[in-house]
Amino acid sequence: MSVAVLGSGAFGTALAISLAETQPVTLWSRNPHHAQAMIEAQENTARLPGYPLPEAIQVTSDLEQATQADTLLLAVPMQKLRSVLVEHSKLFDGHVLVACCKGIELTTGLGPVQVINETVPSAKAALLTGPSFAQDIAAGLPTALTLACGDADLCVDLQEQLTTANLRLYRTTDTAGAELGGALKNVMAIACGAVIGAGMGDSARAALMTRGYAEMQRMALACGAKPETLAGLSGFGDLTLTCSSELSRNYRLGLSIGRGDGFDPSVTVEGAATARAVDAKARDMHLDMPITHTVVGLLDHSLTIAQATAQLLARPLKEE
Ligand SMILES: NC(=O)c1ccc[n+]([C@@H]2O[C@H](COP(=O)([O-])OP(=O)(O)OC[C@H]3O[C@@H](n4cnc5c(N)ncnc54)[C@H](O)[C@@H]3O)[C@@H](O)[C@H]2O)c1
Ligand SMILES: O=P(O)(O)OC[C@H](O)CO
Question: Which of 133, 147, 240, 287 lies at a 20 to 30 A Cα distance from 162?
């Protein structure tokens, strides 16, 4: 099987670098100038500076060429996934499509595997998710991810194809659990960043992570996910990483909210749209998701940090 990574942002580039250890990889950029710049510099200086591209990576802006590969990794932001799939749906017919994004679609409340299934029904959909910073993968540091695919046999094949010396994949057929874990942890990371940015301390962050995890489980179980998926890399694992590291863009957005600073709107922060999508979904499903709702209030400036904190602390007392 051959592989192409579609989307030459930080994560797509890091995955291409790791996969190039074991096989030829095509890395597609939608922007011919960006592709040419990567070819000339042998590095993605715009999105992942400091990590040379190995020779086994072929950079292209020709999607027809990239989709000659059997396995296509879609490393674009969640809110762009549908447009990429719809615009080029003929090229994706019958392919194995592995979404590498973490989020819930704002307009539909769907996760990445669901969006693939809806837009390219002939494709076989999978998801690669879990705790990982692009910089760590590109540097060859040990990393473990979840590979989720509803087709158990294909999941085994993909696990073998996409595992490298330092990138270890665990597999599951629970795509709903993997989708929701990866999406919801970003919302909790914004909340945790806000708490730390506002100087509320590590105990408050631990409380938010734990109650945030309860919220993640509540929604995931209501959507038919397995509890053990949420307890794995794609849920608990990624929650831990993203809520505690300043390498996380979601956490950094939260920090800026807590400190009252501005934040560059061009940075990919999946948790912002996802918080709104999940808040609406929770309302429709009659699920109590107070932290998610509070994050939406902070993002929309309808709540101050002080009001948000007071509101969460004043909730009725209950059993854990
Ligand atoms: N960066 C990380 O450490 C990391 C780790 C794990 C998962 N992810 C996930 O990977 C996904 C992508 O994040 P990233 O860090 O690579 O973001 P990024 O901002 O670095 O790059 C996004 C890329 O998507 C491309 N893109 C945007 N819209 C597009 C479109 N319509 N068609 C084609 N390409 C388009 C952009 O040109 C850019 O190259 C996110 O869902 C993120 O949660 C990122
Ligand atoms: O930079 P973030 O917040 O998108 O986090 C990157 C990864 O999702 C961490 O696993």
Answer: 240
What's residue 57's pLDDT? 98
Residues in contact with ligand 1 by the CB-under-6-Å rule are: 7-12, 30, 47, 75-78, 80, 83-84, 100-103, 132-134, 268, 270
Question: Do 163 and 124 share a domain, yes or no?
Answer: yes
What is the CA(225)–ligand 1 centre distance, in A?
Answer: 25
| Residues 50 and 163 grouped into a single domain | yes
Examine the residue annotation and report whether 90 is marked as an active-site residue of this protein.
no
Residue 23 tokens, joined: 């096989």
Answer whether residue 100 is part of any domain: yes
Residue 1 predicted with pLDDT over 90:
no
Report the residue among 133, 188, 257, 264 best suited for mutation to probe ligand 2: largest number of ligand atoms under 8 A from its CB.
133
- Report H helices in 125-248: 134-138, 152-162, 175-197, 202-222, 227-230, 238-242
Our count of domains for the chain comes to: 2
Average pLDDT over residues 156-171: 98
Q: Which ligand is nearest to the CA of 237?
A: 2
The complex's ipTM works out to: 0.99
Q: What is the pLDDT of residues 285-300, one digit of tens each?
A: 999 999 999 999 999 9
Which one is catalytic: 80, 90, 124, 185? Answer: 185
CA of 286 to the centre of ligand 1 (A): 32
Contact 162, 19 (CB under 8 A): yes
pTM to 2 decimal places: 0.98
- Cβ neighbors of 97 (< 8 A, separation 6 or more) are 72, 74, 85, 116, 120, 123, 124, 125, 126
- Residue 320 resides in a domain: no
CB of 294 sitting under 6 A from ligand 2: no
